[in-house]
Amino acid sequence: MGGGWFVTGTDTGVGKTRVSCALLQALAANGFPAVGMKPVASGCQRGAAGLRSADAEALRTASSVRAAYEDVNPYAFAVATAPHLAAGAVGIEIDMGCIRQCYARLAEQARYVVVEGVGGWCVPITARQTMADLAVALALPVVLVVGVRLGALNHAMLTAQAIRASGLRLAAWVANRIDPDPVLDGYVEALNGFLKAPLLGSLPYDPTGNPAGWLRHFDVGLLEPA
Prior knowledge:
CATH class: Alpha Beta
Strand content: 15-25%
Largest sheet: 6 strands, parallel
Number of domains: 1
Shape: globular
Strand order of the largest sheet: 2-7-1-8-9-10
Structural class: alpha/beta
Number of strands: 10
Distance between the termini: 6 Å
């Protein structure tokens, strides 16, 4: 292993932050210094230190390396909408170069950087660029979080296809059971055949969403060098 991974999802609300935190904790438990990054976040809350993302703060807490908030989350917006719209609302355009500089500083501090995207693979971050372009700019292999619910088979296979079409490697995927319906029991087995990537973890339905409880479900040894 080495470098980092870009964590994307089949949609918003599928558990990217929880999976990223669990991955950070699993790396630390195996003796690998790691730090999380949330390059862009909307729906942030304003406090004494300015706008802060709950997702970014969760990643900082799970990281074994303490980094400056501004590097972990260089773009924080109050409006809870697509990043390019949230940025436009305050007259800002997200700059890929700025994100790459922040990533480089994090990479100097930790052996691994876990970068969590926003929403799904193709969410716009400017009028011309998407989260997929950001992953390509960082040249990171991808970990795909699949929210196991009705529609997940199509969403997962389309996302995996798009990741590979971008030229990036689908390093692994995580099945996150977000719907307890027993009709979904065969989804993980089906996707394991279709996605053709290691299953890093299969997470049971857990409405509490405590990343610490997910560690036993992760096998970071399945991740090839990043």
